[in-house]
Specification:
- This protein has 426 residues and is an alpha/beta fold.
- It is globular.
- It starts with a helix and ends with a helix.
């Protein structure tokens, strides 16, 4: 089997298996030699911001000279993106080698009457092998869905657990209240292991604090009062971070969204290494995390916001720039998201001058014209539909002029645009 065949096989897994309990993952890890043991792991859960926090942590550890592994999801263009070693995607050869070992163990387990590992479980098992064989010292690991029942939660003794902001997403699996969702995320807290968490929402924060107390885990709430913005421009944000007790740090991040101060602060506050504060600050300033309010070209920002809280944060940021810039929106969404509400919020909060609606083809497609009509009903006047994403981008870029173009609504859109821009600019 070659790399392409392995990727094609992995993409078919959701069609013939189901999510398994943690014991299933533990047994497969055991059969693979428990590769997760001996690695210093930082485990990150949350609804929004967990990928960004992982990227900040990875950037800081790299700045401190550590050999790092980074396990995140989803991927935007290539599946290898889910596994990074020292900031670089793993090679096709490393990917294939890990897949073949996991698949061998899975087939043997299946022969005993057990189920094949799920899509995410397969990738998690591969990741543990990849990072062990690469000899990484620190692994920054993002949960897939939820926390309590996530495959990543079989790691027994991480260095620290981090929980980012909580909002409504995947409610069919995690519950329909913020407190219920927080309870699922707090399931990653391990006995005696420090937990650093976004304490900006009283309900979720109280659930996380109670779980930490139950587990005897040191709890470090991150209050918005710990940081204060100094400047916000197209180039990014500078802000002051003040530790409880008075010590201050001057930090800079290359992102325009205010909520990234919380994400960067969570990472900066996670003190489980021997890296000086000035080196950590340097690492933060050099973070690269695609499609999270990313300036992809002058005046062009790609954002993967695709749920209730993500869109609210997006509107806050874009609305700030709308005060002095004409705003063009390139938008799409998939059918299982609340796209009517998303569109209404964007129109009310930003009043974009131009809108181009496009579509992500597949089983969850919402036709571009349907989205365009929603924008018209919400009060936008210059709206057009262009189903093909590359053509939609060019049309939106033409409308942008000297203003700003925001591409938003789906991580799938973000991924398609990254692939298109790579070809366009390559």
């Amino acid at each position: 089997m070659n790399y392409t065949e392995a990727v094609d096989y992995i993409e078919t897994i959701p069609k013939f298996t189901v999510k398994h309990p943690p014991e299933h993952t533990r047994e497969l890890l055991s059969r693979l030699g428990n590769p997760q043991e001996g690695i210093k792991i930082i485990h990150v859960a949350g609804t929004n911001g967990k990928g960004s926090v992982c990227a900040y942590l990875n950037a800081m550890l790299l700045a401190g000279g550590k050999k790092t592994g980074l396990f995140t999801s989803p991927h935007l263009v290539r599946i290898n993106e889910r596994f990074q070693i020292n900031g670089e995607d793993v090679s096709d050869e490393q990917f294939l080698d890990a897949f073949l070992k996991v698949e061998k163990a899975a087939k043997e387990y299946e022969a005993e009457g057990e189920g094949h590992p799920s899509y995410f479980e397969t990738l998690f098992l591969m990741g543990m092998l990849i990072f062990k064989e690469a000899g990484v010292e620190y692994l920054v690991m993002e949960t897939g869905l939820g926390g309590r029942l996530d495959a990543t939660n079989v790691v027994e003794k991480p260095l620290a657990c981090i929980i980012t902001s909580i909002s409504r997403d995947h409610t069919e699996y995690l519950g329909d209240t913020l407190e219920a969702i927080a309870g699922e995320k707090a399931g990653i807290i391990k006995a005696g292991v420090p937990v650093i968490y976004d304490a900006s929402q009283p309900g979720p924060a109280s659930v996380i604090a109670a779980k930490a107390k139950e587990m005897g885990s040191p709890a470090w709430p991150m209050e918005p009062s710990f940081y204060e913005m100094k400047t916000q421009s197209r180039e990014g944000i500078t802000f002051t971070f003040a530790y409880p007790g008075g010590e201050k740090a001057e930090l800079a991040i290359p992102y325009v969204a205010k909520y990234q101060m919380m994400n960067a602060s969570l990472a900066f506050y996670t003190d489980v290494h021997d890296i000086p504060k000035n080196v950590l600050a340097e690492g933060l300033s050099k973070i690269k995390w695609p499609c999270r309010m990313e300036m992809a070209a002058p005046g062009v920002i790609i954002d993967g916001a695709h749920n209730e809280d993500g869109i609210a944060q997006f509107v806050s940021t874009a609305g700030y720039f709308a005060k002095e810039n004409e705003i063009t929106i390139l938008f799409t969404a998939v059918a299982d998201k609340h796209y009517h509400e998303m569109i209404g919020e964007i129109c009310e909060g930003i009043h974009p001058s131009h809108v181009v609606a496009t579509q992500i083809d597949g089983s969850r497609v919402v036709p571009a014209e349907v989205l365009a009509e929603d924008f018209r009903k919400a009060g936008c006047t210059d709206v057009c539909a262009e189903p093909e994403i590359g053509a939609a981008y060019e049309k939106a870029l033409g409308k942008k002029g000297s203003g700003m173009l925001f591409c938003v609504g789906s991580l799938y859109l973000a991924g398609e645009l990254k692939a298109y821009l790579a070809k366009r600019n390559g």
